[in-house]
Amino acid sequence: MPEEQQEQFLVPLDTYLKAGLHIGTKFRTKYMAPFIYKIRPDGLAVLNIQEINRRIKLVTKFVAKFAPNEILIVGKRENGWKAIQMFSKVTGVRNYAGNYHAGVLTNPQLEEFMEIKVLLCTDPWPDKDAVKDAVKTGAVVIALCDTNNESNYVDMVIPCNNKGKKSLGLFFWILAKEYLKKRGLLTAETEMQIKLEDFIEE
Q1: Radius of gyration, alpha carbons of the chain
Q2: Are the CB atoms for 133 and 114 separated by under 8 Å?
Q3: Residue 192 — φ and ψ, nearest 5°?
Q4: Would the CA dihedral through 190, 196, 197, 199 be positive or negative?
Q5: CA 65, chain centre distance (Å)
Q6: Using CA atoms, how far apart are residues 159 and 94, in angstroms rounded to an integer?
Q7: Which domains does the chain have, with CATH numbers?
Q8: Residue 202: what pLDDT?
């Protein structure tokens, strides 16, 4: 890959590849077809890594416009809990790692009720209750979508492996660093404290 292309990646290409951020499933939906680069001999779809990188850049730029209390991260599947919780810890963004309670965004009677402008979910299928609530309130829905996902109700799709602990850890690590950097909160000291291994479940 030419050097100038390499430089545009948020992390070295090798880091993306090692985390398997681009490895999809054997199932493919029409929604995700445009993001598929090729199908491996074992039947697994491979996502276009340059497009993944481009979308992460777009999303980090967009999300950085919002204060932590205007964003909510949800992830029902356990594989993403550690990454989500670490992201919240370093950015102050609220999260539901585990069960999101339907109505949190739409029912002011609930003790947990919150108003947000951006919802980021790790998988629009298990996280569908949060997605539906966010849509009702007019919040922007950003979703990590694998090759088997449908993207109805999603405003911004980030194509990636949304099931692997390493790929989710890498995504939220990049997002945390870029979010803090773009909001002018990333000091050299903070950057050293935000370690990739802390985002990845062993």
Answers
A1: 16
A2: no
A3: -70, -30
A4: positive
A5: 16
A6: 23
A7: 3-199 (3.40.50.10490)
A8: 64
Distance CA 49, CA 153 (A): 24
Helix (H), strand (E), coil (C) string for 5-20 = HHHCCCCCHHHHHHHC
Task: Tell if the pTM clears 0.85, that is, is over it.
Answer: yes
Q: How far, in Å, CA of 64 to CA of 14, rounded?
A: 26
Cβ atoms of 84 and 170 within 8 Å: the answer is no
Q: Which residues contact 33 (CB under 8 A, 6 or more apart)?
A: none
Over residues 94-145, the pLDDT tens digits come to: 999 999 999 999 999 999 999 999 999 999 999 999 999 999 999 999 999 9
By the 10 Å C-beta count (0-12 exposed, 13-18 middle, 19+ buried), 126 is classed as middle
Q: Name the burial class of residue 192, with classes exposed (0-12), middle (13-18) and buried (19+) by CB atoms within 10 angstroms of its CB.
A: exposed
- Type of residue at 20: G
Q: What is the 3-state secondary structure (H, E, C) of 30-43?
A: CCCHHHEEEECCCC
pLDDT tens per residue, range 35-87: 999 999 999 999 999 999 999 999 999 999 999 999 999 999 999 999 999 99
